[in-house]
Design a protein that fits this description.
heterodimer; A: alpha/beta; Aconitase, domain 4; seven-stranded mixed sheet; globular; B: alpha/beta; Aconitase, domain 3; five-stranded parallel sheet
Chain lengths: 167, 420
């Protein structure tokens, strides 16, 4: 996987799946490109229309808490976000990110400000903040999740391997 | 070495001893999706040409979130679920049958099962001594097709609860108190295990409320031992043969143990916009909080016992004229019993709008979407900004008793003052 580059969009702590993909847009769940136009609308209404493909969503603690709706990371990905960075993630959201092929990176996001130019190297486990000229490390995923992410998500992974391969 | 309930259940499934931290591939017993997550699950299977169900009799597609459908897009999603069920012999839980987490535990979950569901509150099944956990659409889709999933064996936090509740205090107050104490990420990835005399004395209705909200502390599951009350519940739903006793070993290893004195718990409220933002009813912030809508229902508190508590408080009285009251029984069987015994007549007489079993207004789709600046006090499990369909509204969480008292007074009220 090549390094990803883009600008940081900062979000606070406890961004829920209702901020990302609100229940009032439930009827758009089978129309994901349309739903993606509203991504993160209830946290930052301008985000979807202002972000550029390749940019990063940078949250605080417990990012993605709440519902199991996989639509949340899916529309972040469809919008063109290269990865989500946060101090910590809610469990289901984290797993869903990997399952849809969206890197979810745990690092000290206090060291990233709005608009910072970031570069993320998944294979080395590094976030390079080019604006601040600092490097942040992040822990590797469990091997099963690395494989799923490398295949572009769980559906592709199962399509290719036919089953879960832990070894 | 002693095992926690999570280690025991996963170990039985993989056929060897497991310890917290391991990653395993395990068979699953019950799979569920609902109308908000099922269509995506089906699309994923279609995309990889894997439209099948390994255990169709234990796979249920629920039409509960937008039920009956308020829009054509959602009606079309329902059609997709029914078509998939016809193709694979899975079961569809139809409009009016009820909320997935109520129905799955009335008719499917057995002690010791692993239940995966594309709905975060699948942890509710923990109340029957099962490991229930919420996942996304694709995870559950693969679970449906292959009959298995991968899991990390969770570390466990044990909650030993002792003492008797004061009158007017219930399991909902206890679990809100625990989440307030832990924080919304206080148990992330962990298994919460509830035990102690207070849990032993709880009826299944209350144990379901406890397990239901484990995910609100970030937990993977919230498991309770099975005992004679579990057995009685299964018998009452025609499933006595599914019973088995399951308890953690006395020498099991817990990452943390919390002791909670239930007799000290007061009626507890979660304030907007997070579940862990709790206050007890005597806190000054609970004074004079005007409430526009009260909602009694959901997988957290829409059971017969919950409706009875509300009816006891509202009997012969009228809701406050400035406060709407919405009641949604959690399942068809709850609705039927509440209808036959007169509980719904009392609530209707008190000015409630009683609606078809399902998720109701909790998910923000229909049946009670809030207006700008409005406040709702609900028995549901979540109060995030925008949860009930309007990011400019405010949601408070509480027990059915607090909800009924609030419906009478028009502002947040202490149920201990109105309990007969």
């Amino acid at each position: 996987m090549t390094a990803m580059r883009g600008k940081a969009w900062k979000f606070g702590d406890s961004i829920s799946t209702d901020h990302i993909a609100p229940g009032r847009l439930f009827h758009l769940r089978s129309n994901l490109p349309e739903l993606a136009k509203h991504v993160l609308e209830d946290a930052r209404p301008e985000f979807a229309s202002s972000m550029a493909p390749g940019d990063f969503v940078v949250g605080g603690g417990n990012f993605g808490l709440g519902s199991s709706r996989e639509h949340a990371p899916t529309i972040i990905k469809i919008a063109g976000v290269s990865a989500v960075l946060a101090k910590s993630f809610a469990r289901i959201f984290f797993r869903n990110c990997i399952n849809v092929g969206l890197p979810a990176i745990i690092c000290d996001t206090d060291k990233i400000d709005e608009g910072d130019e970031l570069e993320v190297d998944l294979s080395r486990g590094k976030v390079i903040n080019r604006t601040k000229k600092i490097e942040l490390s992040f822990p590797p995923l469990p091997p099963v999740m690395t494989k799923i992410l490398q295949e572009g998500g769980l559906a592709n992974y199962i399509h290719k391997h036919g089953d879960f391969r832990l070894k | 070495m002693g095992k926690t309930l999570a280690e025991k259940i996963i170990g039985e499934h993989v056929g060897r001893e497991v310890v917290a931290g391991e990653i395993v591939v395990t068979p699953v017993d019950v799979c569920l999706v609902q109308d908000g997550t099922g269509p995506l699950a089906i699309n994923q299977l279609r995309k990889i040409n894997l439209e099948k169900a390994a255990n169709p009799q234990q796979t249920v597609l629920f039409i509960d979130h937008a039920s009956p459908s308020p829009r054509k897009e959602l009606a079309n999603d329902h059609i997709a679920l029914r078509q998939f069920a016809r193709k694979t012999d899975c079961y569809v839980s139809e409009v009016g049958d009820g909320v997935c987490h109520q129905v799955i535990n009335e008719y499917y979950t057995r002690p010791g099962d692993i239940v995966i569901g594309a709905d975060s509150h699948t942890c509710t099944s923990g109340a029957l001594g099962a490991l229930g956990t919420g996942m996304g659409s694709t995870d559950v889709a693969i679970g449906i097709a292959l009959g298995k999933t991968w899991l990390r064996v969770p570390e466990s936090y044990r909650f030993v609860v002792y003492g008797r509740f004061q009158p007017g205090v219930y399991a909902k107050d206890l679990i809100l108190h625990i989440i307030g104490m832990l924080g919304a990420d206080g148990a992330t990835y962990k298994s919460m295990e509830f035990c102690g005399e207070t849990i032993e004395n709880m009826e299944m209705s209350e144990r379901l409320t406890m397990s239901n909200m484990a995910v609100e502390a970030g937990a993977k599951c919230g498991i309770i031992f099975s005992d004679k009350k579990t057995r009685a519940y299964l018998i009452a739903h025609g499933r006595g043969k599914s019973y088995r006793e399951l308890r953690a070993d006395e020498d099991a290893t817990y990452e943390r143990t919390y002791e909670v004195n239930a007799s000290k718990i007061l009626p507890t409220i979660s304030f907007p916009h997070t579940v862990d933002n709790t206050r007890n009813i005597e806190h000054k912030d609970c004074q004079d909080v005007k409430i526009d809508q009260v909602y009694i229902g959901t997988c957290t508190n829409g059971r017969l016992e919950d409706l009875r508590i509300a009816a006891q408080i509202l009997k012969g009285k009228q809701r406050h004229p400035g406060t709407r009251l919405i009641v949604v029984p959690a399942s068809r069987s709850v609705y039927q019993q509440a209808l036959e015994e007169g509980t719904l007549a009392i609530l209707n007489g008190a000015g409630a709008s009683i609606q078809s079993p399902g998720c109701g207004p909790c998910v923000g789709i229909h049946q009670g979407v809030l207006g700008d600046g409005e406040a709702c006090l609900s028995t549901q499990n979540r109060n995030f900004k925008g949860r009930m369909g309007n990011p400019n509204a405010f949601i408070y969480l509480a027990s059915p008793a607090t909800a009924a008292a609030t419906a009478l007074k028009g502002k947040i009220a202490d149920p201990r003052e109105v309990i007969g």
